[in-house]
Design brief:
43% helix; alpha/beta; 397 residues; flat; 11 strands; 14 helices; Rossmann fold; 3-stranded antiparallel β-sheet
Length: 397
């Protein structure tokens, strides 16, 4: 086992991020961490990496465990080139490179140290590693100019690709990866998923990308200050989440029903308590019962994917729509509903000095969900902006 966390809790002031978490990651295991924004996912990664020490609980780590976390900030890297920044996480590379260069330049004369460094480079394929890193960066659309540029000159999205490349060459035992496919086109994503499938290290990946979630062996969900573990990939998670959410909806319905009945008694007692001492005692008893039930009636976070909602019992579906998270949109249209055409594109070409694309044709109907796929710079955003600009100039008919 790489890491085993017990009774882990984190508070920020009076706010509880999570309490009593139980978490373990095994050798070679690929685990995803999901949850709504603000639940503490990135904080949990920082705790596991050892960068965040202000927490309660116990964490046991494998002896000599080497952990690497994708960085969101790049302080003290102003003068580092991209490739030098990545090489800094390659085990012993900079150390032995210094020995080899120093020996060749006559600065160091210890032949044994030089021989050890050369042997280490050969055994670990370090003679070719700069070319391999440059090739990996290229798969994320960062060319050789980016590889030799100062890290500080790259955009936030480009730095994310650099972080992933650093992970790939770090040879760490545990990789902690935060939102790896944000800003990534489909070819870069395929490259990342292919690497994730092949990697031998343990991985904990914060992601909501369904393509990535389909390639993990377990999903952890941070919800309502607790951590829930679901064995399997995203498809398995959806089935288990539907069952647990359905049970939670029924339980919450029953709690609300009990609360409403208790409230009726309190209202009745309030009207009658002045009539006698017995009514006053009865009212006080009902008020205490109501306060207790109210304190116990806490709304959980409800979320089910759209396809699973359509398979729920009608009574559960209605309650789910009433209680579900506000930022989750669920549509349950009948398959027989006729779709009306909202948009039709015919023979559209767009570009500046040279066309980005030529003669494209498609239509979108009411209820359609369309995914535009293409590499960065292929014209996806230009297409969407062009469509929106047309709708501001013409009237609906």
């Amino acid at each position: 086992m790489l890491v085993d966390a017990r009774n882990l809790s984190k508070h920020i002031g009076s706010k509880i991020l999570f309490e009593g978490l139980e978490l373990f990651i095994d050798n070679g295991e690929k685990v995803a961490l999901i949850g709504r924004n603000g639940q503490g996912k990135s904080t949990l990664l920082n705790i596991l990496a050892g960068d965040e020490l202000d927490y309660l609980g116990n964490i046991s780590r494998q002896k000599n465990l080497r952990t690497v976390l994708t960085s969101q900030e790049h302080l003290n890297t102003k003068d580092l080139t991209v490739i030098d920044y990545i090489l800094g996480s390659v085990p012993h590379y900079l150390e032995y490179e210094k020995v080899i260069k120093g020996y060749e330049e006559g600065i160091h004369t210890n032949h044994d140290h030089f021989s050890d460094a050369v042997e280490y480079f050969s055994n670990n394929n370090y003679w070719q590693i700069k070319d391999l890193i440059t090739e990996t960066l290229s798969s994320f659309q960062l060319d050789s100019d980016h590889a030799t540029a100062p890290l500080s000159t790259l955009s936030g999205g480009e730095k994310r690709f650099v972080e992933l490349t650093r992970m790939m060459y770090s040879q760490a035992d545990l990789l902690l990866i935060d939102e790896p496919t944000n800003h990534m086109d489909y070819i870069g994503k395929e490259r990342f998923i292919s690497w994730l499938d092949s990697v031998k290290q343990g991985c904990l990946v914060v992601t909501h990308d369904r393509d990535v979630l389909g390639h993990v062996s377990r999903i952890l969900e941070l919800k309502d200050n607790k951590l829930y573990s679901y064995p399997g990939n995203y498809s398995d998670y959806l089935k288990q989440n539907t069952l647990s959410t359905t049970s939670s909806v029924v339980l919450y319905q029953n709690q609300l029903k009990k609360l409403a009945e208790a409230k009726k008694k309190v209202d009745w007692g309030l009207a009658m308590r002045a009539k006698s001492k017995a009514w006053k005692i009865r009212y006080d008893h009902w008020q205490r019962d109501y306060d207790k039930i109210k304190a116990e009636t806490v709304k959980p976070s409800f979320w089910i994917d759209q396809d699973s909602v359509q398979d729920l019992d009608k009574s559960i579906t209605e309650s789910y729509h009433q209680f579900k998270e506000k930022n989750v949109i669920i549509r349950t249209k009948s398959e027989k509903e006729k779709l009306s055409q909202l948009l039709k594109i015919e023979q559209l070409s767009l570009g500046y000095d040279a066309p980005l694309f030529k003669n494209i044709n498609f239509s979108i109907g009411s209820g359609d969900r369309v995914f535009i796929k293409g590499r960065n710079g292929a014209g996806k955003s230009t297409l969407v902006k062009t469509i929106l600009s047309q709708y501001t100039k013409v009237a609906y008919t």
